[in-house]
UniProtKB/TrEMBL annotation:
Region (Disordered) location: 109-132
Organism superkingdom: Eukaryota
One Pfam family linked to the record: Ribosomal_L21e
Any one GO molecular function term: structural constituent of ribosome
GO biological process, one term: translation
Species annotation: Paramecium octaurelia
Name listed for the protein in its UniProt record: 60S ribosomal protein L21
Family indicated by similarity: Belongs to the eukaryotic ribosomal protein eL21 family.
Compositionally biased spans, kind Basic and acidic residues: 109-121
Keywords: Ribonucleoprotein, Ribosomal protein
C-alpha cells in the first residue's frame, strides 16, 4: 500500500476519542455560546467530520473574532520562519471549548483590587507586582553523630 500524503495524515491517535468517550456528539458541545474576544481551546472531535481545523491547530488556544450560525471564526499567532503571523480561520463549535487560560489572571486582578481598597482605607501604599521566589536564607547545619559519615581514602585499582 502506498504512503498517504493527505490533509489528515498521521492523525489516527491525535483525533481519536478517549477511552469510553466514543459515540455521538453531546448536545452540550453544539449549544455552547461563544462571544467575540473569548479565548477558546481548539480540540478536534473525531466524531464530527465537518468544520475540522488543520491538525497543527489541535490543542492550541485562540481568540474568537467572528460568530456564525455553524462556524466560529478564531485567530491565533503561528510561528512561520522565525516570525509570528496571525492566522484566521473558521471552525465548527464542536471542535472548540472555552479556555481556562485567563481564570488565574482574572482571579489575581480581583484579589489585587481588594488589597488596594484595604490599603486605601488604612492609608498605606502597597505593591501588587508578582515577585519571584527568593532564595532561602542562610543557616548553619550541625550534623548529628549518628548521621556523620566516615569517608574512605581513595585507592586506585590498576
Amino acid at each position: 500500500m502506498t504512503h498517504s500524503y493527505g490533509l489528515k495524515k498521521g492523525t489516527r491517535s491525535k483525533f481519536a476519542k478517549p477511552f469510553r468517550g466514543h459515540g455521538n456528539i453531546s448536545i452540550r458541545k453544539t449549544l455552547q455560546t461563544f462571544r467575540r474576544g473569548d479565548f477558546v481551546d481548539i480540540l478536534v472531535d473525531g466524531a464530527q467530520h465537518k468544520g475540522v481545523p488543520f491538525q497543527y491547530y489541535h490543542g492550541r488556544t485562540a481568540r474568537v473574532f467572528n460568530v456564525n450560525p455553524r462556524g466560529i471564526g478564531v485567530s491565533l499567532q503561528r510561528r512561520v520562519r522565525g516570525r509570528y503571523v496571525e492566522k484566521r480561520f473558521h471552525v465548527r463549535a464542536d471542535h472548540l471549548r472555552p479556555s481556562k487560560c485567563r481564570q488565574e489572571f482574572v482571579k489575581r486582578v480581583q484579589e489585587n483590587d481588594k488589597k488596594k481598597t484595604e490599603a486605601k482605607k488604612n492609608k498605606q501604599v502597597i505593591s501588587t507586582k508578582r515577585q519571584p521566589v527568593q532564595p532561602r536564607g542562610a543557616a548553619v547545619v550541625i550534623p548529628k553523630e549518628t548521621t556523620f559519615q566516615h569517608p574512605k581514602a581513595f585507592v586506585e585499582i590498576i
